[in-house]
Design a protein that fits this description.
This protein is of the alpha+beta class. It is built from 14 helices and 15 strands. α1 (10-41) packs antiparallel against α2 (44-77), α1 runs antiparallel to α8 and α4 (124-150) packs antiparallel against α7 (251-272).
């Protein structure tokens, strides 16, 4: 039985395409996050990567699609089963993918353009300009306030008692100018006398940093603070001092100022590109939606193969059956409607094969009339010389008896020879037509082969019989004597086909035909093989290529196998050898 297993490479292909799909989604997410910043920062490297990806990805997918299309065209040109159905299914899948893609594209592009128009309709840049100006005005106000304090004519009043109560100076200053929220007093030698401020981080720890300076000090960024300071020489109680006053700006001011500045630059850049930004986003959408469309086409090729594979195998199997091969079977792993169809087909073919066997039996039995006619002719041939010899004896005996003894010996010898031929013919015919009824029993097949092989090993020392491949545990319900006759006849033919020696190898395995289990025997020899012109006549009664053969050996073998509800056939190659196949049911 020839089996066509419906195997599929689709899972592997789908895994590859799924990984490709995940990679594509990742690239889309990455580039969609980068595209806005690239427009703002005008990063040429990232732009180059985007352009390269937008070209390479579609080319890879397009190349795979072209390969599949060329393969499909070749399948159609050679009229491979399922090629036309595959074409229609792929076109259907492509239409569905395109049909669903167009509305999404229209919606996405419209939404993007509407969003862009809405963003730029709101004067964000003007608002950011105003916010930045507010920050600058605030900063300038603090600088001017500090400058005004330095130029104030009442400074001696604020610093009048620095020597014994510097804290009083801070209170006077805070009450008049609250924005000056830090003060630090040093002696002429650089020793700190007093510090008061909103944050200790604004404190100058090393007077040498400002020694010899007067007036505004450079603005200092310290952690989360921004500090504006001025150093003012002062005198009190006949001693000289250095007073550092300043304004501590909170970190929020710096953060807000930086954020507003960065946002202003970004939106100003976007404002410059607003006329092409929408077009860029649309092109970006098309660049990455087109590979997804191509990916769906590739998936359609794989799914189409998966759908039509059982149908193609069925079509192939139907063609084989139409050509007369009833041993063809299709196996499928799925458990859907197609599997029901395949199983129904296999059951139908099994029934057809059984019907064919019955038909062969009927044809064989219908040929018995022709065999009887031929047998009558074979019997008539020796009867004629017997009758003539008897008449000669009788005539010589009643007539001239001269030379009677010499003629008698010759005539009697001819009669004896023809009677012997006739007897042998009748014995063989009897063996062929009157095989005893089957007496089945459970028999270990390898033991049965070993018993017959032992006999035929002694017949020819140049031929080896190998039973090592035969399963030792196979037990069949058969007639052991008749199966011995089958084995012995096949061994004898194989030995006859190997006059200079060779090898006989016996193997077997279990097969299924519909719901029945069979054990398939393979008896292979390395003999001369069977001529092509004789292959259709091997099992015909009275056909033989041997000089002393009767032509009934393989006919008897076939009859015994058929009586066991089995089947027998052979494969042969001239000069290589012959293999006989026998299917015997387990008899369950």
């Amino acid at each position: 039985m020839k089996i066509r297993l419906s195997r599929s490479s689709t899972p592997t292909g789908l895994i590859v395409l799924t990984l490709f799909y995940i990679l594509l989604i990742g690239l889309i997410l990455f580039f969609s996050q980068q595209i806005l910043s690239n427009i703002i920062l005008a990063n040429p490297l990232i732009n180059f990567v985007i352009i390269a990806a937008s070209i390479i990805l579609p080319l890879i997918l397009l190349g795979a699609i072209v390969v599949n299309i060329v393969k499909l065209i070749r399948e159609r040109s050679v009229r491979r089963p399922g090629a036309r159905l595959k074409t229609r299914l792929i076109l259907f899948f492509a239409f569905v993918a395109l049909f669903s893609l167009i509305p999404q594209a229209i919606l996405s592009i419209t939404f993007i353009n509407s969003s862009i128009k809405f963003w730029f309709a709101i004067r964000v840049v003007d608002a950011l300009e105003g916010g930045l100006q507010v920050c600058l005005d605030y900063y300038s106000d603090r600088v001017e306030n500090l400058k005004s304090f330095m130029d104030s004519p009442v400074l001696p009043y604020f610093f009048s008692d620095l020597g014994h109560d510097p804290g009083a100076a801070f209170k006077r200053i805070s009450s008049v100018n609250p924005s000056l929220n830090m003060i630090q007093v040093f002696t002429e030698g650089g020793k700190e006398l007093f510090y008061r401020g909103d944050s200790p981080k604004a404190r100058i720890t090393d007077f040498n940093q400002v020694r010899g300076k007067s007036g505004f000090l450079p603005r200092e960024e310290k952690e989360d603070l921004s500090i504006l300071r001025a150093i003012i020489p002062a005198a009190s109680g006949g001693r000289n001092y250095y007073v550092i006053v300043g304004t501590i700006l909170k970190q929020e001011f710096n953060n807000y100022a930086k954020s507003i500045t960065a946002a202003r630059i970004a939106f100003k850049q976007l404002d410059n590109y607003k006329d092409v930004f929408g077009l860029v986003v649309v092109i970006f959408y098309i660049i990455f939606s087109f590979p997804i469309f191509l990916l769906s086409i590739l998936v359609s090729f794989l799914l189409t193969d998966e759908i039509i594979r059982p149908i193609v195998h069925l079509e192939d199997a139907i063609q084989r059956v139409a050509e007369g091969d009833f041993s063809y079977r299709v196996l499928i792993k799925a458990s859907d409607e197609l599997s029901i169809l395949v199983n129904s087909f296999n059951t139908m073919v099994a029934e057809l094969e059984a019907s064919k066997k019955k038909l062969v039996h009927a044809e064989r039995h219908a040929a018995w009339q022709e065999i009887a006619k031929r047998l009558a002719h074979e019997i008539k041939n020796p009867l004629t010389p017997i009758r003539l010899s008897a008449e000669r004896i009788l005539k010589k005996y009643h007539g001239d008896r001269e030379g009677f003894e010499l003629m008698l010996d010759s005539a009697i010898s001819a009669i004896i020879n023809e009677v012997n031929n006739l007897d042998r013919l009748l014995i063989e015919f009897k063996e062929f037509t009157r095989l005893p009824d089957l007496k089945k029993e459970k028999v270990n097949l390898k033991d049965l082969f070993a018993e017959v092989a032992e006999i035929y090993r002694s017949v020819s020392q140049n031929v080896t019989i190998d039973l090592d491949l035969l399963n030792e545990s196979v037990v069949l319900n058969i007639d052991p004597n008749q199966i011995k006759h089958v084995i012995g006849n096949l061994f004898k033919n194989s030995i006859h086909a190997m006059p200079e020696g060779g090898k006989i190898v016996v193997n077997g395995d279990e097969v299924r035909k519909g719901l029945l289990r069979y054990f398939r025997l393979q008896i292979m020899d390395t003999g001369t093989g069977i001529d092509e012109e004789y292959r259709d006549m091997i099992f015909n009664p009275y056909f033989t290529t041997k000089k002393d053969g009767t032509g009934l050996g393989l006919s008897i073998v076939e009859r015994i196998v058929f009586d066991h509800n089995g089947n027998i056939w052979f494969e042969s190659k001239k000069g290589v050898g012959t293999t006989f196949f026998i299917d015997l049911p387990f008899g369950e």
